[in-house]
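quick one before i forget lol
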Amino acid sequence: MILSIICFILVLGVTVLVHEFGHFLFAKLSNTYVYEFSIGMGKKLWSIKSKKNKETEYCLRLIPIGGYVRLAGEEVEDDDKIPKDRKLWSKTFWQRFLIMFAGAGFNFIFAFVVLFGVGLIFGSVSTSPVIGEVVADYPIAEAGITTGSKILKVNGTTVKNWDSVFWILEQEKGEGITFEIKDTTGEVKSYTIIPKEVEENGEVVYKFGMSVQKTKQYGIVASWNYACSKMESLFTTMFKVFGSLFTGSISVSELSGPVGIYSIVDEQAKQGIDSLLYLVAFLSINVGFINLLPFPAFDGGRILFLIIEKIKGSPVNPKVENTIHNIGFCLLIILMLYVTFNDVLRLFS
């Protein structure tokens, strides 16, 4: 348990550190005054002031979830001690845009580097939807589909990777699925297959009886291709998830908060360092993607107000903008409490 908690803190801590460092770096590059660079939330455990100019305070806080960079000029109440040209609102449109976007941007870059490193060190598993093992007495084997066959389409949708395949299968639980398959001879055939109901741990799951081909490739080119493919796949999945949340095909109750993430970290850590690193990349993309959503209190919400300012030619009333962000933040806290409550229920179910 202690090891799992340490892994959890490191995974979330590194993801947040990368995000906040993006904001911090571009704030410094634009000569914006930075009051505080903080990792974690709640009570201050440790802090140190910048020795060079006694400007920025670097803090480590009690709760290892979240973090922030506090800049001069982003609050309604302005600090008269700070020169105007060092305040956020005095910067150009592109300087402010880059400061706000850099957090997510660094998350994406970090995720790519991690995935590239995983491929380089542990080998790159092809993301192409090629079938590995075929299990006897299951629908795939009974249909005559063999190891090495490639899935081209699922229910008429072209699939380029396993994530796309699994997404469709997850949405169509228990239903007949039409696969377009290219076998090892190059022949293309269409199969309509109904998954087999299997009871596992008291729950009914649906299985087709096939596994992912796990042949590994090594080298810089293979690792680069693997990282590019996984980044594309993860971004596509994120868009699908949020689209499904809005259409209602995925319930908010299915989302995971810190408790759910802890459970996932625990499972991935048991499977090995490569699985844990993949989770780090996955979470980093999630953090970056979510922060770019045009919702109040997110970076994307602040970027939206910046774009509105650019279009109308004058700033939005700071008090109005801050009120909207505060309301958005309260709604996020409520959502976090709801998601965490569901995570706890799942732990004991």
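fyi The radius of gyration is 24 Å.
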